[in-house]
Specification:
11-stranded mixed β-sheet, 14 helices, D-Maltodextrin-Binding Protein, domain 2, alpha+beta, single chain, 25% helix, 19 strands, 513 residues, Dipeptide-binding Protein, domain 3, 4-stranded antiparallel β-sheet, Dipeptide-binding Protein, domain 1
């Protein structure tokens, strides 16, 4: 195994204040895009400003989805990381071996310190991973997984699973299983990551849902960060993020909305196909769409091409399944889905359609989808809120239909975890409230196989079983649209959205490397 010294990435900054008057600034500021007040400082003393898509949902608790902010800011690190192909490679663990089908041994890296100065030890690894396994709710990478961890001397840990699990190293790459200092874990069950990670940047300040401040960690075990720090602002408004890039208020901008791209200098826009699918989830348990024939009618009503052409302005890929072109093997293994019921006439039946505002395109998709469903005979009522205010109702099955932009390989580099979480009877993110014996059996078969061609075919078979229920209607596969000023180099364009700023991210002169 080879170790690459490229770490998870830090976040950057943007000011919410730029919302006011941003429309007047846009046209005049395009020629100045990429300029920053920090350009007069020495490169190594400069801080980068990043505009983030969503504010934290749980106070940057690493046992939640907020963990991905910590990894994108290169604060918290895991035992394993994934390479570009999704294969595991060393990180805080230098090597590993499978002792038997249920037991793995991971050797811990020497001479690593947490941001509070305490050392990384095998016991500390055990404590962090055990906290994750005991969390309520569990990190979704552990859905359906029973895991016990113990120290093996001072230099290694043993990980045992209740069932044989070929993806243990992949699971341990999830940002939700980051290793943190003892100080992070509170008696009340909360986790505070301030000065508790091992990465090239240290989290110094959390300003609620407004911003966060990070400084370079000079005692980092790997290569010293080239930036002095990161100022990260949360900017849910897509227009404001686009304006921040145009005006130079932000150096790096996360998730530039498609609607803003035409207004921005193409030199500042970078686009990468990603494993993220915009899916219409249909409630299989309660309400009108519990009837399979009406779910079939909803599926047939969706005009994917129109959504991609109008809302995404062609900057997305029409979905042939749950898994998109970021998984290059998926399309070649697919066959037509069989066993779907015939569609019934909706005959004016009323349904509720929900989505959230945090991704700028989703409310637009909802408007177009409402028109398509009503043209097919449904009576549609929309409900659109911020994600933090709609998630609990979404997971409780309060909507008949829900539009979600969902990462399909976010956690393990393997889509089985996502499929289990969203579509298994015991899945923790089961918006469709699906519980189907055939789907569960297909997912269990895929989960038991070693990585390779057989597992990939089993994954596609599980996808077909899910699609046959019409619990989910995949509409399109999104692309990463990331904004970077011309004076920034080394910002990570990560399809899995685990990395953004790392120790190699830097400022350059006049846009020349």
């Amino acid at each position: 195994m080879t170790l690459r010294h490229a770490l998870p990435l830090p976040f950057t900054l943007l000011s919410l204040a730029l919302l006011a008057g941003c429309q007047q600034e846009e046209s005049a500021s395009t020629e100045h895009a990429g300029e920053s007040a920090a350009e007069t400082a020495d490169a190594g003393d400069r801080r980068i400003k990043v505009a983030m898509l969503q504010p934290p949902r749980s106070g940057l608790n690493p046992l939640t989805d907020d963990a991905f902010k910590l990894s994108r800011w290169s604060i918290a690190e895991t035992l394993i990381r994934l390479d570009d192909d999704g294969s595991p490679e060393p990180f805080l663990a230098t090597e590993w071996e499978r002792l038997d089908p249920r037991t793995w041994r991971f050797t811990i890296r020497d001479d690593v310190t947490f941001h509070d100065g305490t050392p990384l030890t095998a016991e500390r690894v055990v404590a962090s991973l055990t906290a994750a396994t005991n969390a309520a709710p569990k990190p979704r990478i552990l859905d359906g997984v029973s895991m016990e961890i113990e120290a093996d001397g001072d230099e290694a840990v043993i990980v045992r699973t209740a069932e044989a699990d070929p993806l243990v190293p992949n699971r341990l790459s999830s940002p939700q299983l980051a290793i943190l200092a003892e100080r992070a874990y509170r008696d009340n069950g909360t986790v505070n990551p301030i000065e508790a990670g091992t990465g090239p940047f240290v989290l110094e300040e959390i300003n609620g849902t407004q911003s966060a401040r990070l400084d370079r960690y000079d005692d980092y075990w790997g290569e010293r960060a080239e930036l002095a720090g990161i100022d990260a602002d949360y900017v849910p408004d897509g227009t404001a993020r686009g304006a921040a890039l145009r005006t130079g208020e932000a150096d790096v901008v996360e998730a530039v909305p498609v609607s803003q791209v035409a207004l921005i200098d193409p030199e500042l826009i970078h686009e990468v196909p990603m494993p993220r699918t915009n899916t219409l989830y249909l409630n299989t348990e309660s309400g009108p769409l519990a009837e399979p024939a009406l779910r079939a009618a909803a599926r047939e009503a969706v005009d994917r091409e129109a959504i991609v052409r109008t809302v995404y302005e062609g900057r997305a890929d029409i979905a042939n399944g749950l898994l998109g072109p970021a998984l290059q093997w998926a399309d070649g293994l697919r066959t037509p889905v069989e066993g779907r019921p015939e569609a019934a006439d909706p005959n004016g039946v009323a349904i509720t359609l929900g989505t959230f505002t945090d991704r700028a395109e989703l409310p637009e998709v909802a408007v177009l989808l409402e028109q398509q469903l009503e043209a097919a005979g449904f009576d549609v009522q929309q409900e659109v809120r911020q994600y933090a205010h709609i998630e609990s109702d979404m997971l409780a099955g309060e909507f008949d239909a829900f539009i979600l932009s969902r990462a399909t390989m976010l956690d393990s580099g393997d889509p089985v975890a996502y499929m289990f979480s969203d579509f298994a009877c015991e899945g923790s993110f089961n918006i469709a409230q699906l519980c189907d014996a055939g789907v569960d059996a297909a997912l269990e078969k895929a989960a038991d196989l070693e990585p390779g061609p057989e597992r990939r075919q089993a994954i596609i078979d599980a996808e077909a079983a899910i699609l046959a229920t019409d619990a989910a209607v995949p509409m399109l596969h999104e692309r990463v649209i990331q904004g970077e000023a011309t004076h920034v180099a080394g910002a990570v364009r990560d399809p899995r959205e685990r990395e953004l700023i790392n120790q190699h991210t830097r400022f350059i002169d006049d846009g020349a490397e």
